[in-house]
TrEMBL record:
<protein>
    <recommendedName>
        <fullName>gamma-glutamylcyclotransferase</fullName>
        <ecNumber>4.3.2.9</ecNumber>
    </recommendedName>
</protein>
<dbReference type="InterPro" id="IPR017939">
    <property type="entry name" value="G-Glutamylcylcotransferase"/>
</dbReference>
<feature type="compositionally biased region" description="Basic and acidic residues">
    <location>
        <begin position="400"/>
        <end position="413"/>
    </location>
</feature>
<feature type="region of interest" description="Disordered">
    <location>
        <begin position="225"/>
        <end position="259"/>
    </location>
</feature>
<dbReference type="GO" id="GO:0003839">
    <property type="term" value="F:gamma-glutamylcyclotransferase activity"/>
</dbReference>
<feature type="binding site">
    <location>
        <position position="283"/>
    </location>
    <ligand>
        <name>substrate</name>
    </ligand>
</feature>
<feature type="active site" description="Proton acceptor">
    <location>
        <position position="183"/>
    </location>
</feature>
<feature type="binding site">
    <location>
        <begin position="80"/>
        <end position="85"/>
    </location>
    <ligand>
        <name>substrate</name>
    </ligand>
</feature>
<feature type="region of interest" description="Disordered">
    <location>
        <begin position="383"/>
        <end position="413"/>
    </location>
</feature>
<keyword id="KW-0456">Lyase</keyword>
<feature type="compositionally biased region" description="Acidic residues">
    <location>
        <begin position="238"/>
        <end position="252"/>
    </location>
</feature>
Length: 413
């Protein structure tokens, strides 16, 4: 009989799972670490250049091979996959003070890059996250999609279908605890192991071209924040989802989306359309700078360059931003201060504190949806300004109307 393939390589594995309802703290930490109108950017710290970090050795990657029964216990260091702002040396080496032992550019085919982690409206609407990669199904002839087009132009949104590209840093357990602490104390993300493949270096002609071998995956830690999906809209989707739920091994757990509002208050902050929000220009610049510093593939950097940032385009949005941050600032200071005091040696905050932070984030977003967005405008996605020609047309029509009214009055007089 032939041996069965090892399926661990095909999916990410959860190694330090935490309850998904304790998610709000990571968004607050990311926002607090970013410069804003009430907090100036911290002075730049001296840190070594990216080029001074050596490449991870094949021996260390072999210890993290998917064929290894216990990749974590056989090595004294940790392989951490960075895909967001931690790509940038200013954030990872400067602000967080991490000193990687080695690094290597990789592709993680089990995940896709997404910006669906809610942040703070009007300032940092969303942050980078990973999403389990799904292979699209081919369209069925004669069966058009039943979903209406979104209110924004989805055709202009850049797409990427090759998985997550990033950098795997080899760090010490102490530095990894610092990463967890500065990323929300382990309450916003799941720490998972995902298979990674080394990316080839930039195109060049070597003196002795090596014989190409099949790529060998290795496992690295990364941070993944699961989201709560929408409720199914049609009975067919309900039947399909119920059949999927019955096939799971957990069985018996009630759907958290149908629980009372008090229970949903402690679930991760959920947005109607996870792909609607746009990241800030500051946050996208960190990711683009990190991709350039690590010389990630040109097509991936071109994809990052096409991502549109969130931009405030009206005075009402400026007022809404000021009022929202002014109202959220006291609670933010309390949460950030307690988070640093209550974190343990591994950088993780207590569960009760993570649940309280998640509830507070849900209250903030409920206030945005119910009050700030109707009064002051969109705080997640750029609203285009009124075209100049349309404004001129209005002026012309108004001027012509006033002249006709004047002529009519003169003729009557």
């Amino acid at each position: 009989m032939s041996e069965q393939p090892d399926t661990r390589v095909e999916e990410a594995r959860d190694v330090h799972s935490v309850p998904v309802r304790e998610q709000g703290q990571c968004a607050l930490r990311r926002f607090w670490n970013s410069p804003s109108w009430f907090r100036r950017a911290p002075p730049p710290k001296s840190y070594p250049p990216i080029s001074s970090i050596p490449t991870t050795s094949p021996e260390r990657l072999a210890l993290a091979s998917a064929d290894n029964a216990s990749p974590d216990t056989s090595a004294k260091t940790i392989l951490y996959l960075a895909y967001g702002s931690n790509l940038c040396a200013q954030t990872f080496l400067g602000f967080r003070g991490i000193r990687p032992i080695s690094q290597i550019n990789v592709s993680a085919p089990a995940f896709d890059l997404a910006f669906d982690l809610p942040g703070i409206p009007y300032a940092e609407p969303c942050f980078a996250n990973t999403r389990p990669r799904k292979i699209p199904k081919p369209p069925i002839p004669g069966n058009p999609p039943k979903f209406p087009p979104p209110p924004y132009s989805a055709a202009s949104r850049p797409t990427w279908s090759k998985g997550v590209y990033g950098v795997v840093y080899e760090v010490t357990p102490e530095d990894y605890a610092t990463i967890i602490k500065t990323e929300g104390g382990g309450r916003g993300y799941h720490d998972v192991l995902t298979p990674c493949f080394e990316l080839p270096p930039a195109l060049h002609v070597p003196e002795k071209p090596p014989f190409p071998d099949l790529p060998k995956p290795f496992l690295a830690h990364t941070l993944y924040a699961p989201t709560v999906p929408d409720l199914p809209d049609s009975p067919a989707n309900q039947d399909e989802e119920s059949s999927d739920d019955n096939s799971d091994d957990d069985g018996g757990d009630k759907d958290p989306r149908k629980q009372p509002w008090l229970h949903r208050l402690f679930l991760p902050t959920h947005r109607p359309d996870p792909d609607y929000a746009q990241a800030s220009a500051r946050y996208l610049k960190l990711i683009r700078d990190g991709a350039r510093e690590h010389a990630l593939p040109d097509d991936y950097r071109a994809y990052l360059a096409q991502l549109q940032p969130y931009t405030i385009t009206s005075v009402s949005q400026q007022i809404g931003r000021f009022l929202f941050l002014f109202a959220a600032l006291p609670g933010m200071l309390v949460v950030m201060g307690l988070g640093r005091l209550l974190a343990d040696d591994l950088g993780r905050a207590p569960r009760w504190f993570g649940a309280a932070t998640t509830a507070w984030m849900n209250v903030l977003w409920a206030a945005y949806d119910g009050v700030f967005k109707p009064l002051f405008g969109d705080g997640e996605r750029t609203v285009p300004k009124e075209p100049e020609q349309r404004r001129k047309a209005k002026v012309v029509i108004r001027t012509d109307g006033s002249r006709s009214e004047k002529n009519r009055l003169l003729s009557d007089w």
